[in-house]
Specification:
The protein has 265 residues and is mainly beta. 6% of the residues lie in helices and 68% in strands. It has one domain: Beta Barrel (Porin), CATH 2.40.160.40. It starts with a helix and ends with a strand.
Length: 265
């Protein structure tokens, strides 16, 4: 997520990290380790509005779905984020980005698994038309129980960044920057009790071309049930990109809150 979204004057005045997702109507399910081949996940829509000295609006759509069997898992995640503010009659777009990712895991035995992943992102404020990342490798189930899962994984990756305008990155000028690299990461899910669940994932993409085009991504979400159907969620997303255009900060962090509606298949 963009620093323009989380650190802009608009958000500081509007306190959007707290107001974002006040009106949220997601569809979600219990975050346990079901392996019955049915799709489970979350579909959310978060909006916030302010009026007065600052007129602003923001909207976030997100998708997090997974289908798991005894030896395979197919997951899909996506998001769409737009925010706009108006101060003293001057309108400014403070966020306009999207992303989608899919990953397929196949167990080789009780501990080891192979995976393949594709991810696509765009950010109009950064003139990033498309960032495509393809990766594949091996993973290891450190913990695999009904209430807790912990995986570590590593592999090879390839990232292709395409911009709508010429950019200067690491002394190079152009609209396309591509590089091979590696992927190192870990992920876990935790069902602490009947009310509290937590999910997190950390991915590191060391560059293998010598251009230091390193990328790091962390996302985590805490879900607290308020009833059999309603729960309160808190999510954080942080992205580090070593090689960025001169006017862009390297680290991007966003915080989201929302009310979830649980659906069981």
């Amino acid at each position: 997520m963009s620093d323009r979204f989380t650190h802009s004057p608009f958000l500081r005045r509007a306190a959007a990290p707290l107001l974002l997702a006040i009106a949220t109507l997601p569809l979600s399910v219990h975050a346990d380790n079901n392996k019955d081949g049915r799709w489970r996940g979350l579909l959310g829509a978060s909006v916030a509005f302010t009026a007065g000295n600052t007129v602003s609006n923001s909207a976030v759509l997100n998708l997090d779905m997974a289908r798991q069997t005894e030896d395979t898992k197919l997951s899909v995640q996506g998001y769409l984020n737009h925010a706009n503010s108006e101060v003293e009659g001057r309108s400014e777009t403070t966020a306009d980005k999207w992303g989608v990712a899919t990953q397929y895991d196949s167990d080789l035995d009780l501990r080891w698994f192979a995976f393949g992943k594709m991810r696509f992102d765009g950010d109009r404020l950064l003139n990033l038309t498309l960032r495509s990342t393809v990766s594949a490798g091996l993973g290891y189930h450190v913990v695999d129980t009904t209430d807790h899962t912990v995986n570590v994984f590593a592999g090879l990756s390839y990232t292709d960044n395409r911009y709508s305008e010429d950019q200067t990155i690491n002394g190079r000028v152009g609209r396309r920057f591509a590089s091979p690299g590696a992927l190192l990461g870990e992920e876990s899910t935790h069902q602490f009790n009947d009310r509290v669940t937590f999910k997190q994932r950390l991915e590191l993409y060391p560059d293998g071309s010598g251009d230091k085009a390193h990328i790091g991504r962390f996302n985590g979400s805490l879900n607290v049930s308020m009833s059999e159907t309603l729960s309160l969620s808190l999510s954080v997303v942080s992205v580090y990109t070593h090689n960025v255009p001169a006017h862009v900060k390297k680290t991007d962090t966003s915080l989201f809150t929302g009310i979830n509606i649980k659906l069981e298949p």
